[in-house]
Amino acid sequence: MIATLQCIVLDCPDVHELARFYRSLLGGTVNQPDPRWAVDDDFSTLHPASGPILGFQRVRDHRPPRWPDSAYPQQFHLDLEVPDIDRAQEQVLALGATPLHTDPRGWTILADPAGHPFCLLKGPSSDGR
What we know:
Pfam families: Glyoxalase_6. Residues 8-121 form the Glyoxalase-like domain. It comes from Streptomyces radicis. This is VOC family protein. The protein is α/β, with parallel strands linked by helices. The chain has 2 helices and 8 strands. The chain has helices at 15-26, 85-94, and strands at residues 7-12, 29-30, 43-47, 53-58, 78-82, 98-103, 107-111, 117-122. The longest helix has 12 residues, at 15-26. The protein has a 4-stranded mixed sheet with strand order 1-4-3-2, covered by helices on one side. Strands 5-8-7-6 form a 4-stranded mixed sheet, covered by helices on one side. It has 2 domains: 7-58, 2,3-Dihydroxybiphenyl 1,2-Dioxygenase, domain 1 (Roll); 78-122, 2,3-Dihydroxybiphenyl 1,2-Dioxygenase, domain 1, CATH 3.10.180. 17% of the residues lie in helices and 32% in strands. The protein is globular and about 45 Å long. It starts with 6 loop residues before the first strand and ends in a 7-residue tail after the last strand.
């Protein structure tokens, strides 16, 4: 092994807005003290309860991805497992997500408020189905 994952960083126009969006979606602490980086108006972090740390880096001329337009590539995306896709989609839309596509194979593709695509994937439901 050469490295371990420290943080996934997303470019965006407003670091605080995007950190709050993902905190509402994943839980965790925004801008938890961490000696690996400084947080300010140009950089914010989210330490979720599980999974990797997310970083949000301000880019003044941010050009959001336009899925699936390769002229505006995804740059990255997150796959998020949920017990109920319909309920999860309702919740993330209320947080400011935008629907992009419902795949017939069973997942939904949305964009966060800065335009980054992410997928909702069906995971085990609380009743075991």
